[in-house]
Structure formats: C-alpha cells, structure tokens
Write a structure and sequence with these properties.
four-stranded antiparallel sheet, mainly beta, single chain, five-stranded antiparallel sheet, Jelly Rolls
C-alpha cells in the first residue's frame, strides 16, 4: 500500500528543503513540482530528523535524481530502504541551486496494509 506525503518543501531563496519523516516504509517515488528553478536533486539523510548528512554512492558521488518538472521518479530500493528522515537539495553539495520560488514535492512510501484491510 502506498502512503503519499506532501513535502518536503524548498523555500524561496533556499536550495535545501525541510526534512520529511520517511520511517513508515521504503521511499518508492518522488513527484517533482511543476515549476522548477534548475538543477538536479541530491539528498541528505538523518536517523532522527536532527543532524543530516549527504548521501553518496559507492564511488563517492552524490546520489542524484534528474528533475523532470511535473513528473515523478521511481526510487531504487537499494538506497531508499536506508532512509529515516530526508531532505532534498537543488543542485549538488558543492554547487547548490537557489530556488526563486517555493518548491513543494511529494513522496510515496510503501507501507504495510493495516490489519483491518487485509483479507
């Protein structure tokens, strides 16, 4: 079953979003805002929503999603299952892209069906 959450949001004049709690299940989809101020997405994670760290792949490159305004991307399980709290960054750690306007995303988590709905 999918649980869709509104957010996170990158505020106008910022490049990094607020945090969103992804502890209910693996992140499976990111839906991009229809308007976008440029740059791909990179990600920061936290175990508890307080201190955040950039996510890198095994080669030391930032985990990146190509933004398609108004579109969505499937998130690979190999890195989405390690998430607790998540922030989005427009651009990269070394080259952030400031957004001129508020940018709201949505994310979908795969969660277990509540027992009452199981047959």
């Amino acid at each position: 079953m999918l649980q869709v959450l509104n957010g996170p949001v990158i505020a106008a004049g910022e490049s990094v979003s607020d945090g969103i709690d992804c502890t209910a299940g693996p992140l499976v989809r990111i839906t991009f805002p229809a308007q976008w101020g440029g740059g791909n997405l990179t990600f920061l994670i936290s175990s508890d929503g307080n201190g955040y760290n950039d996510i890198y792949d095994a080669k030391g490159e930032p985990v990146t999603a190509v933004v398609r305004p108004g579109g969505a991307v499937r998130v690979p399980l190999e890195w989405s299952s390690m998430l607790g709290w998540l922030k989005f960054r427009a651009g990269t750690p070394s080259h952030p892209v400031v957004q001129e306007a508020r940018r709201e995303f949505s994310v979908a988590l795969e969660v277990a069906e509540p027992p009452a709905l199981r047959r």
